[in-house]
Amino acid sequence: MSLTPRAPHLLAAATILAQIAYPLMPDHALDALTIIVVVLFFLTSTTHAAVTRGLAWTAGYVVIAVGGGLGVELLGVHTGVPFGHYSYGTSLGPRVFGVAAVIPLAWAMMAYPTYVLVRRHRRTPDRAALLGGLVLATWDLFLDPQMVGAGHWAWAAAGGPALNGIPISNFLGWLLAGTVMIGALLALPDRTPEPEPTSARTSASEGVPMVMLCWTYLSSVLANLTFFGRPGVAAIGGVAMGATLVLALRRWRCDVPARYPAGPRARR
Questions:
Q1: Which end of the chain is more exposed for a tag (fewer CB within 10 A), N or C?
Q2: How far is CA 217 from CA 22, 96, 128, 140, in A?
Q3: Is 199 helix (H, G, I), strand (E, B) or coil?
Q4: Would you say 215 and 84 are in contact if contact means Cβ atoms under 8 Å apart?
Q5: 23-48: b (≥16 Cβ within 10 Å) or e
Q6: Which of 177, 187, 197, 216 is nearest to 45 (CA)?
Q7: Helix 168-186 to helix 103-118 angle, to the nearest 10 degrees?
């Protein structure tokens, strides 16, 4: 049975509505709603990948993003590498060897729209992967303070440098893990049409993931300013992720193929 092309749109709408409802819900319902949002977002990314890129690419994406997310979280929880020392509580449901089972889905839900964004720079895959890692790391500048504040995980008192109560090592760990993950996704064969390298416009196949990426950014800034009372998080995350998204959306000189071959004649 094939997926309807409308499925990603419906799931994206459901994800956004669930996030809008978050600050309006009673405290006892927030843990369950957090899990629901992650699952809906993950299904949005997965169904869009299946509809636009096919089942083979989607299977590779799930293995890399979910498997990679679980692997790096297991390493982090049990060794402190690469994020620092932290531990999960029980509020996010079942745990897999100490890692909340929903967390790898959170890695995957954002890895997909991030991949779609940086794929336009595929002519320089190393730079594109690093840019993808920056998108994920700057997103976590919003995510980690919110999740720690909700009691979903806690950091060990290490006494090192921190930003909004979160160790700087966590940002560096996200940058490293995110770069590797996006680099692996960029290595998957993908024949999906994309915007012309001379244009910064979004193609039809990018619509849903780009909406989810922009919504995540804008809603994170707004929620921290108004509902969570964390203006520092809104400011730092807003500037950092905003600048990264602008950098990703603009055309790079290396994205434009040369019109003429290099050589003596081309230089005349």
A1: N
A2: 16, 29, 19, 11
A3: coil
A4: no
A5: eeeeeeeebeebbbbbbbbbbbbbbb
A6: 216
A7: 60
Query: Structure pTM?
Result: 0.91
Structure tokens, 267:
């230089």
Q: What is the pLDDT of residues 58-96, one digit of tens each?
A: 999 999 999 999 999 999 999 999 999 999 999 999 999
What is the per-residue DSSP string for 6-61?
THHHHHHHHHHHHHHHGGGS-GGGHHHHHHHHHHHHHHHHHHHHHHHHHHHHHHHH
Beta-carbon contacts of residue 214 (< 8 Å; ≥ 6 apart): 245
CB 190 within 8 A of CB 122: no
Residue at token pair 């994800």: 15
